[in-house]
Amino acid sequence: MTQSASSTSPSTDSQLTAEQHQQKMQRRKQVQDQRVAERSQEKGLVIVHTGNGKGKTTAALGMVMRSLGHGYKVAIVQFIKGAWEPAEKAVLGNWPDQLVFHAMGEGFTWETQDRERDTAKAKAAWEQALSYIQNPDYRLVLLDEVNIALKHGYLDVATVVAGLEAKPADTHVILTGRGAPKELIDQADLVTEMTLVKHPFREQGVKAQPGIEF
Q1: N or C, fewer C-beta in 10 Å, the chain?
Q2: Does the active-site annotation cover 54?
Q3: Complete DSSP assignment for the chain
Q4: Does the pLDDT of residue 130 top 90, yes or no?
Q5: Does 43 participate in catalysis according to the annotation?
Q6: pTM of the prediction?
Q7: Is 58 labeled as catalytic in the residue annotation?
Q8: Which has the higher per-residue pLDDT, 112 or 6?
């Protein structure tokens, strides 16, 4: 059976003639145009970035930058980080009229070693975050490392899910951190799992570096 151009491997694609390549791209464009035309719905999304790989917060901050570029108001609440001043805050402080930033944790859980205090801090962060989630003036709300708080039981999953269900229709909420619970994943509209393949800290003993990790 002859294999069609649309199902060939990349190595075979490179051997297509210019005309064959053009025909293939035309077919692909027709399919893509049809898909785009069929999708006209708009809604505020619940977005989860989880997994053991690096880049969960970084990807979320990319969406923050996009929203700021569109003139939207954005709120960021950090649930774990907070004992140190993140470089992101220094940069994002250039949008004081559009962005609010709350670093409400006291550092990573293995540093604080105080479950009762961590729980109190996480609950306070959630109440602060919920005030922005319920405020229709804010188009995007980022709950950074909230999944860690859920994983350790500092926050009740059902409470967070209920808060997300009550958000305004146009509000986007991003929840980052490894170990996102199944209930949150089930509710979310968009879930990305960062997969760790290699990391210089683990394989090469390279320490966290400014501009990359913080």
Answers
A1: N
A2: yes
A3: -PPPGGG--HHHHTTS-HHHHHHHHHHHHHHHHHHHHH-----PPEEEEESSSS-HHHHHHHHHHHHHHTT-EEEEEESS--SS--HHHHHHTT-TTTEEEEE---S-HHHH--HHHHHHHHHHHHHHHHHHHT-TTEEEEEEETHHHHHHTTSS-HHHHHHHHHTS-TT-EEEEE-SS--HHHHHH-SEEEEPPPS--HHHHT-PPP-TTTT-
A4: yes
A5: no
A6: 0.80
A7: yes
A8: 112
